[in-house]
Write a structure and sequence with these properties.
The protein has five helices and two strands; from the N terminus they run H-H-E-E-H-H-H. A two-stranded antiparallel ribbon has the order 1-2. Strand 1 and strand 2 form a beta hairpin. The protein is elongated. The protein starts with 10 loop residues before the first helix and ends with a helix.
């Protein structure tokens, strides 16, 4: 099974792909696309959080007034996307719990549990 990331992913997203792809069946329809979207959101989230760490939560507007750092909005939106795509992929705790209980969780739950500890 090929676990190489799609060419359109940046380096950070490609690294995240490699980290997760081995636990997922990326050959199943839609899984590779969902994983790519998850990895893009992860890359955007980490990049935005780095900018918040450098610039602070409050920055000066062009007119000199303090405003919320625009990267906060980027980070918030990327976090929302991470939750949504993570749910689709079965990467979150409640989905792992369902898989552990034999419920309606991800069929590959044991691999995901091993990956995520």
């Amino acid at each position: 099974m090929n676990h190489e990331p799609p060419a359109h992913l940046d380096d950070a997203a490609a690294d995240k792909w490699r980290e997760i792809a081995t636990a997922l069946d990326t050959a199943r329809p839609g899984v590779a696309d969902a994983l790519a979207a998850y990895c893009v959101a992860w890359s955007r989230w980490t990049a935005a959080e780095q900018q918040v760490a450098v610039l602070g939560a409050v920055v000066k507007s062009p007119s000199g007034f303090p405003v919320a750092n625009p990267y906060l909005a980027v980070a918030k939106y990327a976090q929302r996307q991470l939750r949504q795509w993570g749910d689709v992929l079965g990467l979150h705790r409640r989905n792992r719990r369902k898989a552990e209980d034999g419920g309606e969780g991800d069929q590959d739950g044991s691999d995901i549990l091993r990956l995520l500890g």
